[in-house]
Amino acid sequence: MLSGITQKQAFAVIFTVALATILGAWIFEYAGYPPCELCLKQRLAYYLAIPISLLMVLLYGRSSSLQKNAMIVLGLIMLASCIFGIYHSGVEWKFWAGPTECTGDFAGGLPDLSKKAVMCDQAAIRILGISLAGYNAIISAALSLFAFSKVYGSSSASQ
Q: In which band, very low, low, confident or very high, does the pLDDT at 117 lie, cut at 50, 70 and 90?
């Protein structure tokens, strides 16, 4: 199914999914689920992936090496986002400790009291048992695998 997608279409898919994901995060925030510090940091991958993928759609056909390298970069960005999402999910499930600034452990001093505290170790919402950090890990893993499949997959040689 995905093997018939051209490289340009792949950039468009990554752009669309990344944009929909960040828009979804903003909608949840607007609906009263404020992001914690780790949530905000997870968004950085999307703030990079969206313009890179859009730029590659607009510049498609100019340089095949640029396209390949951009797809690799997108795969790496989303892989890092997946790992960070897994880390944040683990903090929420109390598998490991998170940063002291947003987990209620004040051994390193008090947090910035001028801002509303949003705890990183408490999922704001779970949908089907998965937190938004968990969904970020899943979406990021899918985008990373998709990007790498367009570079290293058997059908990528013909694109």
A: low
